[in-house]
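Lab notebook: predicted structure, single chain.

Context: the supervisor wants predicted structures on file for every construct in the current expression panel, including those that have not yet been purified. This is the next one on the list. No modifications to the sequence; it matches the entry in the shared construct table.
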Amino acid sequence: MTEKHQLQNNFSSLSQKNLELETELRKLSRPGSGMLFMSTELKSWSDSRQYCRDRGADLLIINTEEKQRLVSSLFKETVWIGLSDREQEGNMKWVDNSPLKQGFWESNEPNDAGGNEDCIELNPAKSVLNNWNDIPCTDKRKWICDN
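Prediction complete. Output recorded below exactly as produced.
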């Protein structure tokens, strides 16, 4: 019985600490602070985007070569970014509805293979300025939130 009581106390203490840390993170993550967050779990593009939006952010927009170079150097795993042509095939848009002006595509991408590739991943293992690929939005990837 005492072991159960101790576990409950530990759980309560950890829950309180988690709440405190989330509160501090929210303070640090005010919109416009430009903080990036990479997930530790795998989700579809839509679920990844919802995760970011639930926290006052959105999937990462990469609209400069400088940002592309930075993100490609910071992250080592394939991740979702905030780009898709889900609304209209071939019309790439960022999550803020702005059109794609400059892309950093892998060779022969985007190719909409199988007619079902509408969401964009960034693969930092590929060449820095050529590491975007379109894949099905239901595939599971880690993701980057940006606020």
